[in-house]
Amino acid sequence: MDPARNVLLSITAGVCGLLLLPGLVREGMFMDGMLYTVVAHNEARGIGTFWQPRFSQLGLANMDTFHEHPPLGFGMQALWFRTFGSAFWVERAYALATALLMVALLLGIWRELTRGDARIRGLGAWPVLLWGIVPQVFWCTHNNMLENTMGLFTTGALWCALRGLRTGSMALAMGTGSLVFLATFTKGVPGLFPLGAPFLWWLFTRQGGVRRMVLFTVVPLVTVVLLYLALWQWPEARANLEPYVEARLMHRIAAKPTVEHRWQILLDLFNSQLGPMMLAGALVLGTARGASGPATSRSALALLAIGLSGVAPMMLTLVQKSFYSVPAFPPIALGLALWSAPALERLLERIALRRGLARGLTFAGGAALLTALATSVLLWGRPGRDADMLHDVARIGDTIPQGALIGCAPELWEHWNLQGYLLRYHDISLDPHGRPHTWFLAPVGNDLPGGCRPEGTVLRTLQLARCTHGSGAMK
């Protein structure tokens, strides 16, 4: 391999390894990711089904079964748990696998984009680097978010669309629609944005012709519609999707805003892309060759527009979070990479002329990757967040029989991480409704119900009590 390409590959591996691996091997997870992990873990062990997944014995959001999102993401991770068991690292290995598959997709799309330009064809690590340094990307990987899985389907659909627009393959048109369906079947409406990719690609590049653009817009759309119509005729599928559409998609979007103004998602997008934009822009400004030529620049603009199409529709609602945009980041990374690739090529040519510098940079990238691996070994299984809570959950699990239903102070019901950890590691469900149970959990300092006495287990933020009442177990 070209020494200059070695530099790029080594630095990309080192930087992405440092950002991804040490945080991935630690215990503790963001609330949403822990909810998804519990649902998938339960399904893997026969607690709930693909169409009727379950979170706890008392359910969630006034429903016995879990309908916060469509079921595909949970079903896929349930297969992972069935294969590898229940160790804490299993969901983290799944998240790592999604990241590696995304790298493969980025490389595949890059090869498609650079078919006619041998100079930059070997720079496939460049879009990977621009994608991997975005904070929301490695944060989602650390926290087992559904965006990891949905992003694979949307990026796969983009590859099918771009290759299909060039080849005219009807199979790729149907593949685009099928992958968009899988994306929406993982996390709903945000997965639809690749349907607009053929039009945006044609609009900016004029490649493929109008007829092919229309074909690759209509066929995927019809494929998605037909697949959902078929699912709607299946009673079990309909029983899953109806509560999602009514209770989650329609009601919550209207009733529970998370931001004050609709422009917040675009502001978050700009902030998330500051690093890649500055890196690509510095390259273009700092080299004599500058940015790509007109044809490549049009392709880069098309990719940026496709990425924006995955974010801008979220302005229609006030339910916005910055990580919702993560599936739209791959085309943005590809667009920035394509725009700045000639400048990077020029820089690498200069580095190749200075063999000592090339060897030093390659060594630095390798050292960074080794540091990431060594740090991951040292941090393996240590808390990355919620350390006191994880300590208490472990002690509670040592005391209470697995699968128990225990009473809790009402204020603990909204502590979803606590519920998630108890369920993920010990199958222990909480009941805040004052019904009699053998065990009761409350924050430190709270008064205990009558008939309950403190248990001797030493906890940091909670107190566990034994009560003279009956217990339940998850079924």
Summed up:
With 475 residues, the chain is mostly helical. It has 19 helices and six strands.
What does this protein look like?
There is one protein chain. With 475 residues, this protein is mainly alpha-helical. The chain contains 19 helices and six strands. Strands 1, 2, 3, 4, 5 and 6 form a six-stranded mixed beta sheet that branches. α15 runs antiparallel to α16 and α18 packs across α19. The longest helix has 25 residues. It is globular. The N and C termini lie far apart (57 Å). The C terminus is likely disordered.
How many helices? The count is: 19
Could you state the order of secondary-structure elements as H and E?
Answer: HHHHHHHHHHHHHHHHHHEHEEEEE
**Tertiary shape:** globular
Provide the gyration radius in Å: 25 Å
Largest sheet: 6 strands, mixed
- Average residue pLDDT: 91
The helix/strand class is: mainly alpha
Beta-strand residue percentage: 5-15%
Which spans have pLDDT < 50 for at least 5 consecutive residues? 471-475
Q: How widely separated are the two ends?
A: 57 Å
Record field, number of beta strands: 6
Helix percentage: 55-70%
